[in-house]
Amino acid sequence: MPQLNPNPWFLILSSTWLIYTLILQPNIASYLSMNYPTKKNKTTNTNPWAWPWT
């Protein structure tokens, strides 16, 4: 079973993560989000519902 031999697979795994962390991650993180979360200062007044059977 080739999955048990770490020689070729560990090199592929480590090189993939190295490429991801050094090259792709800063490029992806540089994109700005167009929808920034805004803090709403609106307070809602919650009144209890007048149920007809109570």
TrEMBL record:
GO terms for molecular function: proton transmembrane transporter activity. It comes from the Eukaryota. The chain crosses the membrane at residues 12-32. InterPro entries: ATP8_metazoa, ATPase_protein_8. Pfam families: ATP-synt_8. One of its GO terms (biological process) is proton motive force-driven ATP synthesis. The keyword Mitochondrion applies. It is found in: Mitochondrion membrane. The keyword Transmembrane helix applies. Keywords: ATP synthesis, CF(0), Hydrogen ion transport, Ion transport, Membrane, Mitochondrion, Transmembrane, Transmembrane helix, Transport. It is a single-pass membrane protein. Its main location: mitochondrion. One of its GO terms (cellular component) is proton-transporting ATP synthase complex. PANTHER family: ATP SYNTHASE PROTEIN 8. Belongs to the ATPase protein 8 family. This is ATP synthase complex subunit 8. It comes from Macrochelys temminckii. The lineage of its organism: Eukaryota, Metazoa, Chordata, Craniata, Vertebrata.
